[in-house]
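Can't paste images in this forum, so I'm doing it all in text. The chain is below; anyone willing to post the predicted structure tokens underneath?
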Amino acid sequence: MQDLPKKSYTYSAYGINIRSEIRLPELNHSECGDDVNISFTQLSEAHLNRALNGAVTFERPRCVVRVSGKAICYFWKDIGTALVQNGNEILISTAPGIDHVDMAPFITGALLGNLLNQRGLMVLHGSAIALEGKAIAFLGEKGAGKSTLALHLQKKCGHSLLTDDLVPVTFEGNEVKTIPGFPRIRLWTDSVSSAGIDPTALPRINKFVDKRSYKCPDGFSSERLSLGRIYILTEDSEIEIERLEP
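Text version of the structure:
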């Protein structure tokens, strides 16, 4: 009996068209997916060793990362393995009992970020909004408030979101341009509540983390903007702004 063809969905984000075997509802729909393919398969150790020839291994909390010249592999214990290669392909093998849809935030987060890096972009960890025709980016460690600040600036101040979590930039002549992502902000429940939103009204990003997905299609800018400012968020006993040298 011949296998039925796998279903695919097409999206756009960060200026690329994506074809995926699972729904990625946070992304915008596209008519084609010619740039990047995302599929689920069984990744054997032999396959990984061939793709990751000469790889360097890094230990991360709950994750092992292997990096070579054209590929990067993530292994999340009891969740799955993902291989990102050549700037155009993401292959995923899930652990037993893991639903494919729970991999969506991994795909649109770390995996897509590494793929963009393979395509020659500098990818910053942060969020960005549009302000007076410029991109304003907020960087910092996990929990520093990057997404929360973007939410308040978008919802309460009316500034359009450019991207959340990943801030890819490209160098065009003397300008640094920020490439927009998609109209979604991922937030912890207390951050959602701080903006006057009921967290239970927003979907969880997956079953592993109690983060919520806030969509703002009417407050999103799809225009590439020059990077006007970068703010590095840190924790201190006082509120102040310190100007950093370039």
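The chain is about 15% helix and 40% strand. Residues 104-118 form the longest helix (15 residues).
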